[in-house]
Amino acid sequence: MDLKHIRNFSIIAHIDHGKSTLADRIIQECGSVTERELKSQMMDTMDIEQERGITIKAQSVRLDYVKDGEHYVLNLIDTPGHVDFSYEVSKSLASSDGALLIVDAAQGVEAQTIANVYLALDNNLELLPVINKIDLPAAEPERVAEEIESSIGIDATDALMVSAKTGVGIRELVDAIVDRIPAPVGDPVAPTKAIIYDSWFDPYLGALALVRVFDGSIRKKQIVKLMSNNEQHEVLDLMYPHPLKKMKTDSIGSGEIGIVVLGLKDVGTLNVGDTITDAKNPTAEPVGDYEPAKPFVFAGLYPIDTDKFEDLRDALDKLRLNDSSLSYEPETSIALGFGFRVGFLGMLHMEVVKERLEREFDLDLIATAPSVVYDVYLTDGSTQEVHNPSELPPVNHIERIEEPYVKATVITPTEYLGNIMNLLVAKRGLQEKMDYLNEERVLLEYSVPMNEIVVDFYDKLKSISKGYASFDYEPTDFREGDLVKLDVRVAGDVVDALSVIVPREQAEQRGRALVKSMKELIPRQLFEVAVQASVGNKVIARETVKSMGKNVTAKCYGGDITRKRKLLEKQKAGKKRMKAIGKVQLPQEAFMSVLKMD
Ligand SMILES: Nc1nc2c(ncn2[C@@H]2O[C@H](COP(=O)(O)OP(=O)(O)OP(=O)(O)O)[C@@H](O)[C@H]2O)c(=O)[nH]1
Fold this sequence. Notes:
With 598 residues, this protein is of the alpha+beta class. The chain has 14 helices and 33 strands. The protein is globular. The termini are far apart. The chain binds guanosine-5'-triphosphate. Residues 13, 15-21, 53-55, 81, 132-133, 135-136, 163-165 line the site of guanosine-5'-triphosphate.
């Protein structure tokens, strides 16, 4: 296909600014599906995505459009909106030549808008500002256009004004995609050079790679090579991604996107970001640097029923077929038995994986508090990566510990600025930048230890700003910290799954808060239970759970039988989520409570 008639574009936006709704509208405008077929949010295919209204996996569609009598192919490359998936976002952008920058006409520029713009500019993309939701009574498109200019520094005078809900401005938008997004450049006769920007598993076809071809073409029966690992495979089949079906083709040419079938049994080696080339006549340089997606957050996942360990392994193996960023290895905990230490891209990724394991594989799991990765430098000169706080070497072997930092971007209305700055300082944040976008809104940039933001930072930020502040982050570097391991002992035994690494200066306060909340969470047992927090051998806090009879209905005297039954049912349901630590039953919440202490 003639390169001049191809347009490859992504849509980038802050969460909820209307990306999926707009994608549906564009698909409809191109007539690739009829109104009847246009199931709302067609591009969000996974159940969890549809339920939560988030986009997890990037999906793409190839659309046909006729403008001024000329036939164009528009490749719409959907990108995941959440920070956890920024690696996938950046690879989708690397496959595009331009991007629609969607901004909500009522909300204006938000933290993720900025973060996505940085990624788009890194990839030299032409940005087309699109102000969406102009149908809303609270819409202020002119103010938003000014915000785009002042915060991002791009000309927004030609910003497109649309409503993905009513369809206003959509035709003009698609015309602008043809007119303003540059056609791809590439050499159709050079050796094959294509980037994998998504991969997934199909039960019939095996592992599939979604690619953008830069130079040359990918042909059926061609022997291709993956440049990161030199694996060679035959191309069994090729398809274009159509919104409703996959259209077979014999070759995918320069400038095009398509789906490659290599007959692999899992996505393990089809890594996002890798370059595909011809095995015999390879291209000299890959498309950009390839880095494997790196897990930033680790947690232990343990089946509540210890017999289900193999089931958990099978379930993780199955999830990994579709998610090459998921990593795990078996681990044993004195407290929890056999389980896995699982690496995630971030907190949302962790939640999604845990939910899928429980929902699709019917497993009841205990998740330990998430931990970041620490680089521990030992006195013998060696270094150790610690993913699990309980594995921190003894203090006298440690020379220093380094922890990961992120660049956190927050945009907030000025009235919440004071409280937000206090929160960032409490989270050990260092201010890098403070810019007023206009009189009402401020952009903050802070360096913050990642450990401080992995659990409840976002919830706190939302609550102190009544939901108005937005937040995004990007991992930056490792820095030395004065950190210690805080242990919890229940009835005298250290519960390894509850250990956590904290700044020394906060250890005592956190220890006290921790045992207090554990006391509330641990149901009374038939005997008295001591709950202690310690650093090394030193106990720094203690609480006691008083003993009580087991029958919870004892306290509802009187004869209300339904209430009694309800309580007994609740007690039974509660049991499913309990884990016996020695003689003591601990509920799931106890394992999450450790990081939520201030
Ligand atoms: N009034 C109005 N609502 C809109 C418009 N476009 C989208 N919405 C609504 O805004 C909400 C978010 O839209 P989505 O399309 O799910 O947003 P998104 O950016 O894809 O969200 P993520 O996939 O989670 O990043 C939905 O409730 C939409 O119905 C619009 O033009 N006008």
